[in-house]
Write a structure and sequence with these properties.
three-stranded antiparallel beta sheet; 13 strands; 14 helices; about 400 residues; CBD; binds ligand G3I
Length: about 400
């Protein structure tokens, strides 16, 4: 191995001399390209896209001009901290974590960072434990992809967050056709079977997930199959079944637009109180935290809201943090994003029963944001080339300052 590395390094050191100019059809430009940008005589460097320019027949030698529509936003980080390490050592949190997805685990450069438990002490599967993945047909369960993430977490000494059991999205269509009288048993069977399968492996479950409970702004209940058939009882049914299936797992309701005070946060507080009064198990509230650069309030706004929940004797967690911007990224936006990340993380640090922070994937390469919000992106602390952005230092500062 050492011999191979030495050979590889000495081979690399020869490259600039061996390939001074790109050959015809060879790469000569593009984002991240560090090779030659001039081409052999008779060809010129032709722009194909932001990531690739190539030598093509022409006359004379030409230097490439790459028109980039996105910026290489990494390398603004100077922090030497490792985020899970400082989350635990400096902020007394259980973990700093990331979401991930099965298709990403074949990307070796991505995995090399994800599996480092000094950086990430916790993993959440972004899709593979959801209903459409685990029970695609009535009574037919599939755990292959969920198991892959669970094994990954175990192999790397990382906590696993189960995500999720009852959500109105990513429900297979058969669920909507279940006769009303059977919806309760379908829900209970699903929760029981999935939670039992992962019993002993999951630190906490997002039992009921975002928007299942309340519409985003007004705190009213969302109309969908479980609510329509069971009313608000579907929440207590799901929580009760989850507790019976794995008494050790923390049971969460996870939602968005509840990170700071407002109608929805108040409605959620009232729901927790009602569940507790009815002796329904509830251990925590997940604050999704899909936020927008420049619109993130000071840490104090999160702290006072988080404390309303922890005052009820439950924990909170920041479960899906990302902070998106309107593209293209600029140094000013990246600096603001750093401040925004710092504020959220500092808030979790300040609240003893905020147990940890999870980012909704660590890299812009795999963020859900650009495909959902047109013209927006750059929401993660690592750029699409897996290079740390200033936001990384914001997180580190949030845990340490
Ligand atoms: O698996 C199919 C694949 O077979 C198909 O070829 C492809 C074509 O579009 O779609 C694939 O499914 C996609 C799935 O992600 C897996 O990649 C869905 O279209 C896509 O809608 C789905 O998006 C997920 C989204 O939840 C669904 O609402 C995102 O990856 C996931 O990050 C996102 O996560 C949610 C949390 O669960 C709850 N909170 C909000 C958060 C962001 O929306």
């Amino acid at each position: 191995m050492a011999r191979f590395s030495a050979f590889f390094v000495s081979f690399l050191s020869l490259l600039p001399f061996a390939i001074a100019q790109s050959q015809e059809w060879g790469q000569c430009g593009g984002m991240g390209w560090t090779g030659p940008t001039t081409c052999v005589s008779g060809t010129s460097c032709v722009f194909m896209n932001d990531f690739y320019s190539q030598g093509a027949a022409s006359t004379g030698t030409t230097t490439v001009t790459t028109t980039a529509t996105t910026t290489a936003t990494g390398s603004g980080s100077t922090s030497t901290a490792m985020l899970n390490t400082i989350a635990k050592a400096n902020a007394n949190k259980l973990y700093f974590g990331s979401a991930t997805d099965n298709s990403e685990l074949s990307d070796t450069a991505y995995v090399a960072i994800l599996k480092n438990n000094a950086e990430f002490g916790q993993i959440t599967p972004a899709n593979s434990m959801k209903w459409d993945a685990t029970e695609p047909s009535n009574g037919v369960f599939s755990f292959t992809n969920g198991d892959q993430i669970a094994s990954f977490a175990k192999a790397n000494g990382q906590l696993l967050r189960g995500h999720n059991l009852a959500w109105y999205q990513q429900l297979p269509s058969w669920v909507n056709s279940v006769p009303t009288a059977q919806v309760g048993s379908v829900l209970t069977t699903h929760v029981t079977t999935v939670v039992k399968h992962y019993a002993g492996q999951v630190y906490a479950w997002d039992v009921v997930n975002g928007m299942s409970i309340y519409n985003p702004h007004d705190g009213s209940w969302r109309s969908f199959v479980f609510f329509n058939a069971l009313g608000q009882n579907y929440v207590s049914m799901a929580l009760t079944a989850a507790r019976a299936a794995d008494p050790a797992a923390k049971l969460y309701i996870n939602d968005y637009n509840i990170e700071t005070a407002g109608a929805k946060a108040t409605a959620m507080l009232n729901l927790v109180k009602a569940l507790q009064a009815a002796k329904v198990p509830i251990d925590g509230i997940g604050m999704e935290s899909h936020l927008i650069v420049g619109e993130v309030p000071a840490a104090s706004a999160f702290i006072s809201n988080f404390e309303q929940f922890t005052a009820l004797g439950i924990e909170v967690a920041v479960t899906e943090l990302d902070i998106r911007m309107t593209l293209p990224a600029t140094p000013a936006l990246l600096a603001q994003q750093k401040t925004d990340y710092q504020n959220v993380v500092a808030a979790c640090k300040a609240v003893a029963k905020c147990v940890g922070v999870t980012i909704w994937d660590y890299t812009d390469k795999y963020s859900w944001v650009p495909s959902t919000f047109s013209g927006q992106g750059e929401a993660c602390p690592w750029d699409a080339n897996l290079v740390r952005k200033p936001a990384y230092d914001g997180i580190a500062a949030g845990f340490t300052n």
